[in-house]
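Lab meeting, action items carried over

1. Structure of the two-component assembly. Owner: GW. Status: complete.
Input record:
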Amino acid sequence: MAPILYQSVLDRPLYDADRQPTLGNFTRVLSSAEFWSTLGTTLVFGLITTVLAVVIGTVFAVLLTRTDIPTRGVLNSFVLVPFYVSPLVLAFAWAIVYGPSGFVTLFVRANLGLPTWNLYSIGGMALVSSVYYVPYTYLYSTGSLALTDPQLEDAGRIAGAGPVRTLLSVTLPLLRPALAYGTLLTVVSAIELLSIPLVLGSPVGIQVLATYLYKLGLTGATTDFGGVAAVAVLMLIAITGLVWAQTRVTGQERRFVTVGGKGTRGRVLRLGNLGWPFAAVLWLYVVFGIAIPLVGILAQSATAFLSPLINPFTVLTSANYDVILGPNGYTSSIVNSLIVSVVGGAVGIVFIALCALIVYRSDFPGRKVVQYLALYPRAVPGLIVGVGFLWAFLLIPGLGGIRNTVFALMIAFVMRFIPIGFGAVGPSILRISNELDRAARVAGAGWLSTMWTILLPLLRPALLSGFVLLFISMLKEYSSALFLFARGSEVIGTTMIELWRQGNSGPVAALSAIQLAMTFIVLIVGQRLVGARLHG
Amino acid sequence: MVHDLVKEFAGGVLAVNHVSLTIQEGQFTTLLGPSGCGKTTTLNCIAGLEQPDGGRITVGGAVLTDVAKGVILPPERRNLGMVFQSYALWPHMTVFDNLAFGLKLHRVPGAEIRTRIGEALDLVGLANLEKRYPFQLSGGQQQRVALARAVVAQPRVLLLDEPLSNLDAKVREQARFWLREFQQRLGITTVYVTHDQGEALAISDMVAVMSQGHLLQFAPPKDVYERPATRFVADFIGQTSFLEGTIERASADTVDVRLARSGRVLTASAFAASTKPVVGKAATLAVRSEKIRVGATAESEANVLPARIKSFVYVGSAYEYIFETSEGDLRASSPVQVDGVETRLGLPPEALVLLADEPAGR
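Predicted assembly:
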């Protein structure tokens, strides 16, 4: 981060020998009308996204975990799908299906003669983003609900409340800590989200901070180094504040959950006749929000032209895949993505295991600092991670050779996803009674040998899950790569953005389909082979 | 062995307040007290799992901890055995591997590891379970494996942290006798932590009663029960009533106490060795409910107190009474059923215990 702070107070690019310290960058940014209107748009966008995502996520969590709503299992799998899908792919998929000339849009307008909507708007962006962020709230809420004693709800029923009333006045209030956490996480993520505003907002001139930064840094004729740094610093300050609030809330949440005691299972509220109507509403969301767009992008990838006016089966083609996989195609980005994800995931999980064991299982005096450093990158938007590493590679002698290689991306990705992996491994460590380490110490083992012989074997499932999680996160990552990639080190995400900017929606769809296939293969293999669990 | 141990928790609270204990070799010593009294902290300090802020811990001639000299051996270098409340059997290892772990670290040769594990499992009666994993064992079996693991490396001292608290009440009572027998067969010096007074009395050679970080009494079980040193000890163990008064006359083995309200004089002949009666000083007498003789006649008793039944319940082996007397309520348990509501209570001198002052609170 240091290079960004440094650059933000320089008048010229930080590698320029004539650089002078200045506060001009900040005054320039803060006095530009564009910055303020962008900030306003970002806040409106973030707010709508968060409200939608939290409400939908909570409804799903409560109905699927605490009631006997029909088809729970299938709904549970579907609502989590966006968690594994790159937001870039989700944005493309929605654009292909619901965009101004999208399949469904045209169908409604031409075949049904009804008025249509405009996806390329703040509301549209927020809607798509909320679909992407629903799993966050959903996962935190189900986690918390699983620890809630169902007898609390039984008591509500016996006191005379109906099922819906019980959910509203007993179950929901108990969820407050989880909801607060989910809300903050969604706000932070929505503010730094680049892909969906880039795909849906940029074509019509709607600009949020992330796309503004992207424009300043990458698409202008000349890069405005000082401006990029100043905007980045301002974003960092805001997001650090939010993350600080978030850790405060999490601290309380943990206390809340552990006091809750034993996990209970089994009894759920009977909805009776209300079950099917509720299920229908949830299915509506799943089908229109997730299933149709993803089917749409697959259909687009396999056809020359996707429109309700033409039978898609008459225009089937493999041309889009040929563009990607052909001799002059983009296979290198797929290969790079795989290398980065596999090696980066492996390196990342080893590093995470080490940090987590030091933080939770040692007397090392600096362990609080380690924990803070491990969790801080969560506060840093991907684009800024990219800028920071780029400038660090420029500044630090000896690291220049790494720049423009996949190693640069790998380092940035590992650092970016350490908090996610840490969040997955940490609770597993806490769940292992420390009497097990103590027993080993008394039996004559030192700290290192205790960690190696007792804790690591017990953590193996958690570490494998963590690896799968890192792999998938790195496979779909694009934002921190945008500043760092060069010809030869491009990854799937950067190639998709490039192709989309050239207007090649067919090959983009094909590449998306390939990425989706890779993700779900790894996910399924992971779950079958090692019982990896990515959540819960 | 434990000398002037001090452990301070954040906020200046003394979890262990200058506790000193000398444990004889081969004895079974119990640290007894309610939760938060400092007993587990003391045990952990002996094990090296927590670092005391002051004091010295030695075993035989070997110094394990000497805070003044900056010596605090890590747990793995103390050669102790320990059984944890949750047993802490490593779930990814078989019973055999669990036992072999410490032996390998002590560089015991492979053949000897086998024989020693065989012996240890024989000792706890689980000979054929070497290949099982902990989750395939019942609670009682897990507890025995944990015990076998703790002693297989022939430690200098065996530490037990409420090892019976996870067992069912019935199994627990059997395990108590079995554990005592096990310890005596090995002749191993044992320090045991529990909050269960019945367990402590049944199993120990010596009981150390603790409260709020203080060691209140360190004595054999019989003394702890019959001559409790302080009001807390008397109250914590068994069912006890208290009488307040002033010491009127004191000799080597009896004291006369004038009761505060009725002015009646009672003779008491029981007190802990550490209690020094001083004439004219306020005094508290403790009396166990089962030692009160209900329906006593004036001729047969040295100390008699008229009483009135306030309430009673029948519990099978006896009646549990609450009597109203001039000195306040007294609890008594007796097989004698009282006719009417008025009766007299006999308080034998040997059942009246003169208590020492409580140490100043923390």
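2. GW to write a short summary for the group page. Key points so far: Helices of chain B lie at 39-47, 95-105, 110-123, 139-152, 169-186, 197-203, 221-226, 231-236. Chain B touches chain A through 27 residues (CB under 8 Å).
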